Amino acid sequence: MSSRWANDDPETEAIVAEQKRVKEQKKRAKAEKQRLEEAKKAQARDANANGELGPPTKRRRLSNDPDAHSDDAELLKIEKEQKSQSTLLRFPVGEWGPCRHVDNFERLNHIEEGSYGWVSRARDISTGEIVALKKLKLENSPDGFPVTGLREIQTLLEARHQNVVYLREVVMGNKMDDVFLVMDFHEHDLKALLDEMREPFLPSEIKTVLLQVIGGLEFLHSQWIMHRDLKTSNLLMNNRGELKIADFGMARYFGDPPPKLTQLVVTLWYRAPELLLGADKYGTEIDMWSIGCIFGELLTKEPLLQGKNEVDQVSKIFALTGPPNSETWPGFRLLPNAKSLRFPSTSAPSSAGNPPLLPRSRFPYLTNAGLSLMSGLLALNPASRPTAKQCLDHKYFKEDPRPKPREMFPTFPSKAGMEKRRRHHTPEAPKRGQEAPELDFAGVFGGAPGGDTGEVGAGFSLRLG
């Protein structure tokens, strides 16, 4: 049945049908749009219910009345704040402010003088706490603030570890070159303890000391920091058996590729052979050699390798380890100072293993596992030395006697608490900017030719260049 409004004209009927079709399309499009909007609103409600931030609300014009524009502006301001809160990340930071003055501390007594500063015992007037106050040596520094002081401050601020000395703050004096580091106070350094003790540490106590030193060093190496002056006088102890690595004046960040480094680092008695032979590219292996020297010193109460100078130091090292060869130290001949070495025509064959074991006669009371660890740390080839992490897992620390708990560690009367520490009979650390001397190692092995005067040391005749 046709509509009563329809005309019999076919053209008119076609127009009406097209209008209906267009109307139906618009209706379906409107329904689809409403469906999508409802789905978005439902998704936003679910996100808010789960604690997630949804997209910022859309700004709407509430009224065409000019008086209502202020309400629109307020709404826009609220929407902007919501958007900024949803995208801006905030982090807690420390407060910036001037350094405190050194007069906030009462200096009680002088402890000792190091290569890069003077250390005193002091009391924080506001809290009454006893601290160590180190005045940096800034005199005769052509570049203003010395890089050694900057490195020490930077590394101590980054190296927050239970076996690294804690830097509390930096304070200033009346002049620009009066800069002090405020650190936790410790009653002893390891060198002073060994000098005062009648008997060396027990094996269980040696393991406790070594584990703490290596633990702190492993953290430093994981933070890409080389200490470069490890020795017993730079290891501090308190009366609770806790040990801390200190004196970061020669510490240096490293990376891959390594930065340009100076070869004149580490106190002579603890200096690795590659440094003595002129290497200017090195890594954390030099710290591990120093750990081996400290290990030997803990066993005997005396520094292991006490050379009078660089040539004598190399002589004493080779007397302990044996002369290097292409098997025990590949490529050592490429080092600058190794070219002058003249080896004896006949030399004793090295013991089996790589690295070879050190002579047991030097460490008669050390277990086989302990001798293995010592031999690895004092390997001539830097690549053969274990890392700090590998040392912590060594079987030497797992065999009996086990490391003594720190709570049961013996206590000792404090020299630093009442009087100046006795001057250590050890060489001083190299000074910054000091040039490495030109060395001639031709007389390390065999007699000095041509009637040259020489010194006898560690089983070899030396000719000093």
Helical element count?
10
Distance between the termini: 126 Å
Mean pLDDT: 80
Which descriptor suits the 3D outline?
Answer: elongated
**Helix content, binned percent:** 25-40%
Integer-rounded radius of gyration = 37 Å
Which structural class do the helices and strands define? alpha+beta
The strand order across the widest sheet is: 1-2-3-5-4
For this structure, the CATH topology of the domain at 188-339 and 355-408 is Transferase(Phosphotransferase), domain 1
Could you say what the CATH architecture of the domain at 188-339 and 355-408 is? Orthogonal Bundle
Low-confidence stretches: 447-465
Under CATH at level 1, the class of the domain at 188-339 and 355-408 stands as Mainly Alpha
Q: Please name the fourth-level CATH homologous superfamily of the domain at 188-339 and 355-408.
A: Transferase(Phosphotransferase) domain 1
Name the helix and strand elements from N-terminus to C-terminus, one letter apiece: HHEEEHEEEHHEEEEHHHHHEE
Number of strands: 12
- Biggest sheet architecture: 5 strands, antiparallel
Strand fraction: 5-15%
Explain what the structure shows:
- By secondary structure, the chain is of the alpha+beta class.
- Among the domains are: 102-184, Phosphorylase Kinase, domain 1 (2-Layer Sandwich); 188-339 and 355-408, Transferase(Phosphotransferase) domain 1 (Transferase(Phosphotransferase), domain 1, Orthogonal Bundle), CATH 1.10.510.10.
- Helix content is 31%, strand content 12%.
- The protein has 10 helices and 12 strands.
- The strands form 4 sheets. It has a 5-stranded antiparallel beta sheet, with helices on one face. Strands 6-8-9 form a 3-stranded antiparallel beta sheet. A two-stranded antiparallel ribbon has the order 7-10.
- This is cyclin-dependent kinase.
- Its EC number is 2.7.11.22.
- Belongs to the protein kinase superfamily. CMGC Ser/Thr protein kinase family. CDC2/CDKX subfamily.
- It catalyses: L-threonyl-[protein] + ATP = O-phospho-L-threonyl-[protein] + ADP + H(+); L-seryl-[protein] + ATP = O-phospho-L-seryl-[protein] + ADP + H(+).
- Residues 1-69, 397-465 are annotated as: Disordered.
